[in-house]
Design goal:
Strand order of the largest sheet: 3-7-8-9-6
Keywords: ATP-binding, Chloroplast, Nucleotide-binding, Nucleotidyltransferase, Plastid, Transferase, Transit peptide
Radius of gyration: 23 Å
Subcellular location: Plastid, Chloroplast
Number of helices: 14
Number of domains: 2
Enzyme class: transferase
Largest sheet: 5 strands, mixed
Distance between the termini: 20 Å
Mean pLDDT: 87
Low-confidence stretches: 1-24, 30-54, 465-480
GO cellular component, one term: chloroplast
GO molecular function: adenylylsulfate kinase activity; ATP binding; sulfate adenylyltransferase (ATP) activity
């Protein structure tokens, strides 16, 4: 199923041999540096203290932006200023985008997009900087308001952004308000306006008819207080961790599903190949998406429990793996969105990005087919504007080898010996308390997945499961 971002393809696909996928000089001798640019009015001494020299890839624009107002008088001054400003209430997804922007994942973007930035992202999948250079930006990062909010703002040049509890989150300055053409935005981002696109339903369908852009000043770091904040490392913190581990290469792997042994095979094989290329200490960034996901995806908290078991049981080496949460919401926009996923990992310090079958894809919401061509994601990444310095690593196809009783790379000379287990099949096995073939997933990780579906079944009220699409009661074939 396309909604599982794995390399367990329905049918084998050919991929370009590993070394030939590299678009830039991948030699270990390459040395770059980056600096962090603070939010508006940060003291010069604080900027200098954040300057870091490293052997990691340079962030987009040459600098990481930091839009969080420093603690102390500056922060308190912004709070006083915000009290007199018109207020815009943020949705859950809006707050996730504030998080993304505040930490520099979208560097060099410094706030919600104004119209010129929005149009460039929508039509060119990139932004042209003042020096003429181009950085990738395939997903519009925008904030919608309605007619009433627009009228309340009037001629003001600043607004205060507040959360659902009216707590101050940020100030948006030097604002620009422009028309929100939803149909054009949806059509160009997803390639369809079919009803049922998860992100559209969550964040666009009922949003306002205007977009407001401007420079963002975030009052304090975004925290969720859900027991997972320790995993939410910013690009600066990730770069510092890679330096602490003496990484001379970083390869990133994004996923929104539990890790099985096929994933692990791919990641360990990638490290082996990087070592063969001359790197001394390649570090894996295992980077699950932590923002909005559709209802039938396994929730973040359970995925993180499962990932912990993968490291505890030695499927992946904790010494060469960094597990962190990527705060972005998920669009399920296929080749358009995978560019955003790759671009943001450049800012986190990754110079290699692993891409597989139908990245960021999903089933068509109305028809029985995948929404995107399974191969287009990796093809688009290989020629996307602004991603030239990132080395793209296509998945090698892996499946369950019934003779060896383990996950292995597909051998086209004996296709009858391989079993392709889709994400849908994996979920069906777990929610029906059936074990997968030995060697498919580490035992502790599989136990976590089964426990998750058991918690859903425990919510049965009067014989029906509420709020959990796709979950079935034992012995019933009816979807509830």
């Amino acid at each position: 199923m396309a909604s599982t971002a794995t390399f367990l393809a329905k049918t084998p696909i050919r991929t370009t041999p590993f070394p030939k996928t590299l678009k830039s000089d991948p030699s270990p001798g390459s040395r770059l540096s980056f600096s962090l640019v603070a939010g508006a009015r940060r003291p010069a001494r604080a900027i200098r203290s954040c300057r870091i020299a490293c052997a990691l890839i340079e962030p987009d624009g040459g600098q990481l932006v930091d839009l969080v107002v420093p603690a102390g008088p500056a922060r308190e001054g912004r709070r006083r200023e915000a009290a007199a400003l018109p207020k815009v209430r943020l949705s859950r997804v809006d707050l996730e985008w504030v998080h993304v922007l505040s930490e520099g994942w979208a560097s060099p973007l410094r706030g919600f997009m104004r119209e010129s930035e929005f149009l460039q992202a929508l039509h060119f999948n990139s932004l042209r900087l003042p020096d003429g250079s181009v950085v990738n930006m395939s997903i519009p990062i925008v904030l919608a308001i309605d007619d009433t909010q627009k009228k309340a703002i009037g001629n003001q040049r600043k607004v205060a952004l507040v959360d659902a509890n009216n707590k101050l989150v940020a100030i948006l300055s030097d604002i620009e308000i422009y028309k929100h053409n939803k149909e054009e935005r949806i059509a160009r981002t997803w390639g369809t306006t079919a009803k049922g696109l998860p992100y559209v339903k969550e964040a666009i369908q009922n949003a306002g008819n205007w977009l407001i852009g401007g420079d963002l000043e975030v009052i304090e770091p975004i925290k969720y207080n859900d027991g997972l904040d320790q995993y939410r490392l910013s690009p600066v913190e990730l770069r510092e961790e890679f330096l602490r581990r003496n990484a001379d290469a970083v390869f990133a792997f994004q996923l929104r599903n539990p890790v099985h042994n096929g994933h692990a095979l791919l990641m360990t094989d990638t490290r082996r190949r990087l070592l063969e290329m001359g790197y001394r200490n390649p570090i894996l960034l295992l980077h699950p998406l932590g923002g909005f996901t559709k209802a039938d995806d396994v929730p973040l908290s359970w995925r993180m429990k499962q990932h912990e078991k993968v490291l505890e049981e030695g499927v992946l080496d904790p010494e060469t793996t960094v597990v962190a949460i990527f705060p972005s919401p998920m669009h399920y926009a296929g080749p358009t969105e995978v560019q955003w996923h790759a671009k943001s990992r450049i800012n986190a310090g990754a110079n290699f990005y692993i891409v597989g079958r139908d990245p960021a894809g999903m089933k068509h919401p109305k028809e029985d087919r995948d929404l995107y061509d399974a191969d287009h994601g990796k093809k688009v990444l290989s020629m996307a504007p602004g991603l030239e310095k990132l080395n793209i690593l296509p998945f090698k196809v892996a499946a369950y080898d019934v003779k060896k009783q383990k996950m292995d790379f597909f051998d086209p000379s004996r296709p009858q010996d391989f079993l392709f287990i889709s994400g849908t099949k994996m979920r069906d096995l777990a929610q029906n308390r059936k074990d997968p073939p030995d060697g498919f997933m580490c035992p502790g990780g599989w136990k976590v997945l089964v426990e998750y579906y058991e918690t859903l079944l425990e919510t049965v009220t009067n014989g029906s499961v509420t709020h959990f699409p796709g979950v079935q009661k034992q012995g019933s074939s009816k979807q509830r």
